[in-house]
Amino acid sequence: MNSQIIDTIKQYSTIIIHRHVRPDPDAYGSQLGLKYILEHNYPDKRILAAGTHDYTMDFLDFPDLVEDQDFEGALVIVTDTANTERVDDQRYKTGAKLIKIDHHPNDDAYGDIVSVDTTASSASELIYELFTYGRDHEGWTMTAKAARLLYAGIIGDTGRFLFPSTTQKTFAVAGELIKYDFDRNALHNGMYEMDRKLLHLQGYMYQNFKMDENGAAHVKITKDILKEFDVTATDTSLLVGSLGNVKGMKAWVILIEEDTEIRVRLRSKGPIINTLAKEFGGGGHPLASGATAYSWQEADQVIARLAEICAAAN
Ligand code: AMP
């Protein structure tokens, strides 16, 4: 598969790389890590990173401004994005050829070349694997800038190597990446330092979550609460994992009210919850997934289903 991807990359002079909406470090890490690897090894090619910048990623990097005409005859690569609706932006369809590189369940096998490995901790780990193939067969070399991005993606998607998706290979890849010269400390601070107001909201979550006897929990963050703590719905992404620290917690859902919808963020320490996300039109990983609800009544149904799943798992 990696040989097919590299053969295809060699055939195109413009390559546009996309990732998913509501980006996280693995989205940016895999997208921009790949961009810098390709730019470095094919200086004559134009490599562009598409998608809207999200301010939560300011510490990490920025995408490029991509014009409509850039897509003419271009190779498009989408990383870390399970389904086409989540591709940022939708002009990804207007290129000449499409490659999907991802580690989520392959429910939507879009693209002319589909490279999906659900055993990989992150899309960034897959980009590193693509790099090793390029290194061994084409003489590719890595840059510190690319290594920093891929390392951030791995750290982000493994919750600093704590999630079960972390394998021996993940540690080995991270071990290789830290050989490059980038400021790991500054990167970690960028990823994990939180505004005081966000920590206050975290305190609210710890004070107000409800957990049943089977370890199923939820907390509702209404628009009023967001306003009270002066935090946006997007800011809350750093808080989603925190309920996992609660003893006895099996799986939890955080419901965040936005203007017209409620964002459903599901996490689990064991029971499979992406099936539940799919019931509500969402998706994701077995232990980290999400969906959108359109009323508090629907959100309550998610809570009830999560309770059933945890009860069945006990
Ligand atoms: P998040 O809670 O936003 O960090 O999302 C966790 C994971 O769930 C992501 O990696 C996505 O794969 C998936 N996900 C979140 N929201 C949705 C959605 N509305 N539709 C499909 N997948 C989603």
UniProtKB/TrEMBL annotation:
Pfam families: DHH, DHHA1. The keyword Hydrolase applies. GO terms for molecular function: 3'(2'),5'-bisphosphate nucleotidase activity. Keywords: Hydrolase. Residues 228-311 form the DHHA1 domain. Residues 15-154 form the DDH domain. InterPro entries: DDH_dom, DHH_sf, DHHA1_dom, Oligoribo/pAp-PDE_c-di-AMP_PDE. Its EC number is 3.1.3.7. The keyword Ion transport does not apply. This is Bifunctional oligoribonuclease/PAP phosphatase NrnA. SUPFAM superfamilies: DHH phosphoesterases. It comes from Planococcus notacanthi. It comes from the Bacteria.
